[in-house]
C-alpha cells in the first residue's frame, strides 16, 4: 500500500498560522520564517526526509553532499509554494507575476462548451491556478481526497472567504464520486484530477517514470480516455520569488483498437510531459513519500 494516506502535512494549524503571518507581516516575513521551520522537518518528519533523500540519490543520482543540501531546498521550496497558495486564496494574488503557455488554445477548449478533463500533479503549485480561471471558475471541479479536503476547508473558508471553484471529494463510495464526475462533465463543466497519487492499490497502473517503475491511479486516465472529452495536462511552476508559469499540454485522442489499453495510452502521454516538467524543476516534486517503492 502507498505510504500517502490522503492527508497533507501541516494541517489546519499550519494554515491558520501562515494566513495570519501573511495578512499581518507580509510574504517576505513568511518566507524568512521558513529558515526556522525547514530544519525542524529534517529530523521530525523522518519518512518525508527519507523519501526526499532517496528521490535525490536514486532518481536524480546526486552525491551524498548534494542530496543533503537538496533535501533542505526541497522542503524550503515546498514551504514557499504553500505560502503562495494561501496568499493567493487570501487575496494577495496581485503580488505575483504570471506567464501563460498555450493559454489561447486552452481558453478555446473552455469556450467550446464541450466539457474538459484536466490532469495535473503534486508538482509546482497547481492549486494557485484556481484563482485565475475568472468566469470559468464556477464550472471548475477539482477532485480531491476527502481526508485532505475536510481537514483544511473550514479554516481556509473562514480566513479567505471561500474558494471560487468546486470540489468533488473522494471517499469510500466510489460510485458517488464517479456519478459526481460524470454529472459535471455532462453539464459541460471542467473536472481536474491529480494523476500522480492513489489510495486504492487495486485501481492502479504501473509504469516507468524517471527511470523506475511507479504506480499511478487508474481513475483519471480511464475517465479521460473514455468520456470523449478534450484532455489537458496542466502544471503551474514557480519560476521566481513571485513569478509563476502556467503550462497547458493537449492530449491526443486514444485509439480503441491499439495494442495498449486507452488508459495506458493516455497515461504515457501524461508521463512524457510530467517527466520533462520534473526534470526542469526537480525541487518542485512534492510527493514526500516513497513514490517508487
In short:
The protein is built from 9 helices and 9 strands. The chain has about 290 residues and is α/β, with parallel strands linked by helices.
Question: Which helices and strands, and how do they pair?
Answer:
Blueprint: H1 11-25, H2 27-44, H3 46-59, H4 64-89, E1 97-101, H5 103-111, E2 116-120, E3 140-145, H6 146-160, E4 166-170, H7 174-186, E5 190-194, E6 204-209, E7 212-217, H8 219-226, E8 231-240, E9 243-250, H9 262-280
Helix pairs in contact: 1-2, 1-6, 2-4, 3-4, 8-9
Describe the structure.
A hairpin with a 2-residue loop joins strand 8 (231-240) and strand 9 (243-250). The chain has 9 helices and 9 strands. With 293 residues, it is α/β, with parallel strands linked by helices. Helix 1 (11-25) runs antiparallel to helix 2 (27-44), helix 2 (27-44) crosses helix 4 and helix 8 (219-226) crosses helix 9. The mean pLDDT is 87. The protein has one domain. The longest helix is centred in the N-terminal third of the chain and has 26 residues, at 64-89.
General shape: globular
* Strand order in space, largest sheet: 1-9-8-2-5-3-4
SSE series: HHHHEHEEHEHEEEHEEH
What is the rounded Rg?
Answer: 19 Å
Overall mean pLDDT stands at 87
Task: State the separation between the terminal residues, measured CA to CA.
Answer: 9 Å
What is the percentage of strand-forming residues?
A: 15-25%
Which structural class do you get from the secondary structure elements? alpha/beta
Specify the helix fraction band. 40-55%
Amino acid at each position: 500500500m502507498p505510504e500517502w494516506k490522503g492527508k497533507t502535512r501541516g494541517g489546519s494549524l499550519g494554515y491558520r498560522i501562515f494566513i495570519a503571518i501573511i495578512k499581518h507581516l507580509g510574504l517576505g516575513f513568511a518566507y524568512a520564517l521558513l529558515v526556522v521551520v525547514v530544519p525542524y522537518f529534517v529530523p521530525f518528519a523522518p519518512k518525508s526526509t527519507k523519501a526526499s533523500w532517496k528521490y535525490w540519490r536514486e532518481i536524480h543520482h546526486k552525491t551524498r553532499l548534494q542530496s543533503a543540501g537538496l533535501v533542505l531546498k526541497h522542503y524550503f521550496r515546498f514551504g514557499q509554494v504553500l505560502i503562495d497558495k494561501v496568499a493567493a486564496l487570501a487575496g494577495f494574488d496581485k503580488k505575483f507575476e504570471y506567464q501563460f503557455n498555450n493559454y489561447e488554445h486552452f481558453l478555446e477548449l473552455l469556450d467550446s462548451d464541450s466539457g474538459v478533463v484536466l490532469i495535473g500533479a503534486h508538482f509546482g503549485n497547481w492549486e494557485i491556478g484556481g484563482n485565475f480561471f475568472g468566469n470559468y471558475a464556477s464550472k471548475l471541479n477539482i477532485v480531491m481526497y476527502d481526508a485532505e479536503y475536510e481537514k483544511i476547508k473550514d479554516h481556509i473558508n473562514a480566513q479567505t472567504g471561500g474558494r471560487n471553484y468546486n470540489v468533488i471529494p473522494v471517499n469510500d463510495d466510489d460510485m458517488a464520486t464517479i456519478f459526481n464526475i460524470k454529472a459535471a462533465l455532462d453539464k459541460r463543466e471542467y473536472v481536474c484530477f491529480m494523476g500522480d497519487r492513489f489510495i486504492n492499490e487495486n485501481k492502479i497502473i504501473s509504469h516507468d517514470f524517471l527511470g523506475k517503475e511507479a504506480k499511478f491511479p487508474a481513475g483519471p486516465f480511464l475517465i479521460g480516455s473514455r468520456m470523449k472529452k478534450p484532455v489537458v495536462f496542466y502544471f503551474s511552476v514557480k519560476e521566481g520569488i513571485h513569478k509563476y508559469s502556467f503550462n497547458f499540454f493537449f492530449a491526443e485522442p486514444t485509439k480503441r483498437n491499439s495494442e495498449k489499453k486507452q488508459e495506458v495510452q493516455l497515461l504515457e502521454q501524461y508521463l512524457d510531459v510530467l517527466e520533462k516538467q520534473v526534470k526542469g524543476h526537480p525541487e518542485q516534486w512534492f510527493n514526500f513519500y516513497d513514490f517508487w517503492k
